[in-house]
Every structure is written in C-alpha cells, then in structure tokens.
Amino acid sequence: MLNEAFTLISDKVEDTLKPQNFTKVKIASTDDNELVSLYTSENLAYSVIYYKDSMHTLLRECGMTDEGPDNQWKTLATWLFDPDHDTLKEASSIANDFCDALSAPSAVKKLKQAKKTKKSEDGNADPLFLSKRFITLFPELRDEIKEEQDCYYPFRGVTFTRASIVPRVNKLVREGKTGELKKLGNILNTQYVNGDVDTRSIITIVILNSIPEEDESKIEEHLSDNLKKAFTYAKKYRGKTVKPEKEKKPKKTIAQRLQGMQ
To answer: What is the pTM of this model?
Structure first.
C-alpha cells in the first residue's frame, strides 16, 4: 500500500510540474527510512519525501546550481499518511494538495523570479557567485563564505579565494580523481564564460596561476579551449606583483552599531 500510495502522489506531482519544464530525476534513497522522488528545472528543484518512522509525507523545494540541487530544502507542505489505516483516497488528497501548492500563483511567480535571477547571474556572475560554485566540491566553504560576508562588504573575492579556495583546489588537482578534476574544470569553464571581469581574473590569475607547474597539466585537459588560451596568457604574470585588493574595513558588530546610536 505504501509504495502504491507514494507512486500515486509522485506521478500527480510530476504531471503538474511537466508543463513548467520540470523533469523527474531517477534517484535512489540511501536511507531505508525514506521514499523520495525528485523533480528539477534549470532554476528550482522540488521533492516529495515520505518518512516511514513518523509516517509524514513532505513537499519540499530548493534552488538549483550548476551541479544540481543546492540542498537548502524548504518544506512547503506536510501530511500524515498511515499505511496501516489510510487508503489511496487519502493519498489522492495529499497529491491534490501538493499539486495545488505547485500551481498556485505564488509558486508560478517564484519560478519566474528564479529564472530572472538565474539569467542575471549567468550574464554577470561576480566573485561571490564564483565562490559559492565551489561548495559542491568543498562543502565546508559554505560557513567560510558566510563568515566573510558577515565581516566584510563588499565581498573580498581575491583575498577569500587565495585563503580558502586556492589551497583546496591545489590539493584536489594534486590528489583528486578524474571525476573530481572534471567537475572542477566544469566550474571554471562555466564561470569564466559567465563571469564579470573580476571573476575571470580570479579564475586565471589567482586560481589557475597558483597551481604548481608540475600539476597544471592535470587540470588543463579539463579546461575549455577559451580558458586554456586565457590561462596561457595569465602564466606571464607568475611571480610578478599584482596590485592587491583594496583593504576593506570589517563590518561593525550589532553591539557596536547599537553602542554608536547611544
């Protein structure tokens, strides 16, 4: 009964999302306590998940990155489904509620806004946007980026990249497997095309130029022709002093701001 009910809910959600250009992604849950279905578009992801221990069915959403869902899930609706007592009638009610939520004007507006934001980011990606792309390779960067944003404005792209991204990239290039190197190459290629002038400079002068010469061939084979040419040109600046990023004053803490108002 449970599998049949979950399939009914998932299929109805899929039918609702298809006209909005969502695709159902084949995934297998690694947790025996869960049943999961996932639907993705270019900008948003939705999932239906059932927790066997609590008997709850959830509809969730999160944003999309170049590598897939960002996994910052937000629950949109929750229903109790007891497979020992409930029937497909209750499952159908749950499915209808989920579908109503997905086709509501607010949901449609959110999807349009996500497309608009994505288009803007793709056309003019800045150093902060670039830094966040590396979270898929180095999840621990999420907290470091947040700390940097909390302490400094605007975001110190060069300083942050040198301190937090370059050492991790160098280690990955030195020790990483082909799949990881390919993923790194994809990030660099995509953001070089989509990035603003500062972002492109960070990719070539800061990240690629910091890779030891004996390891650079490992990543070069995963770079686009465009980025390979830019990297070749950037090598001329190795060992030369480049004008440093202008020092930015740390943000005042909330306590300091309140004290200044007294």
So the answer is: 0.50
Q: Quick check: helix, strand or coil at residue 68? A: strand
Beta bridge partners of 259: none
Q: How far apart are the first and last CA of the chain?
A: 64
Residues in contact with 105: Cβ distance below 8 Å, sequence separation at least 6, in sequence order = none
Token pair belonging to 62? 């999160």
The per-residue pLDDT for range 41-93, each reduced to its tens digit, is 877 889 999 999 999 999 998 888 766 788 888 898 999 999 999 999 999 99
Q: 177, exposed or middle or buried, with CB in 10 Å at 0-12, 13-18, 19+?
A: exposed
Non-local CB neighbours of 208 within 8 Å, separated by 6+ positions: 188, 216, 219, 231, 234
CB atoms < 10 A from the CB of 74, how many? Answer: 9
Q: Give the pLDDT confidence score for residue 237 in this predicted structure.
A: 80
What's the rounded Cα separation, in Å, for the pair 95 and 232?
Answer: 55
DSSP state of 152: B
Counted residue by residue, the chain has a size of: 262
Per-residue confidence (pLDDT) for residue 254, from 0 to 100: 43
Which residues, 6 or more positions from 132, have their beta carbon under 8 angstroms from its beta carbon? 65, 141, 145
Spatial CB neighbours of 25, under 8 Å, sequence gap ≥ 6: 38, 39, 40
The predicted pLDDT at position 253 comes to 46
